[in-house]
Amino acid sequence: MAVVTVPSSVSPADALWVLYQSQTKKVKKAFLQRIAEEEAAARESKEMNAYEQSLTEAQRTAAHEFVDIVKARANEVVQASKEGHHVGRSANDFLQELQAE
After folding, report:
1. Is the pLDDT of residue 22 over 90?
2. How far is Cα 35 from Cα 42, in angstroms, rounded to an integer?
3. CA 76 to CA 63: how far, in whole Å?
């Protein structure tokens, strides 16, 4: 990566703006998409943190335990898929169980 020296009279924002303006439409679009995705992720993270703070300690603990269980089960499915077998019961067994109820 080349190092570019910018005169101290040029602000970093101005230097970045000039660099952005010199890019193709495709690069500009990709750049704007990244900014939008980062802003959305930051907003979502802030909202999730605010929501989590609104939970009681018991609710927070239960939610974290639930997430851990879901992650563990998802990992089991991924591993089973890699090994060529399935986890749990077959769809037919599940449907028969539902019909019995």
Report:
1. yes
2. 11
3. 20
- Contact partners, residue 76, CB within 8 Å, separation at least 6: 87
- Give the chain's mean pLDDT: 90
Dihedral pair phi/psi, residue 86, rounded to 5°: -110, 165
**Tokens in use for 21?**
């303006």
Q: Is the pLDDT of residue 68 over 60?
A: yes
* Start-end of H helices in 8-90: 12-21, 25-54, 57-83
Residue at 55: amino acid letter: L
Alpha carbons 73 and 93: distance in angstroms, whole number:
19
User: What phi and psi, each to the nearest 5 degrees, are found at residue 92?
Assistant: -65, -45
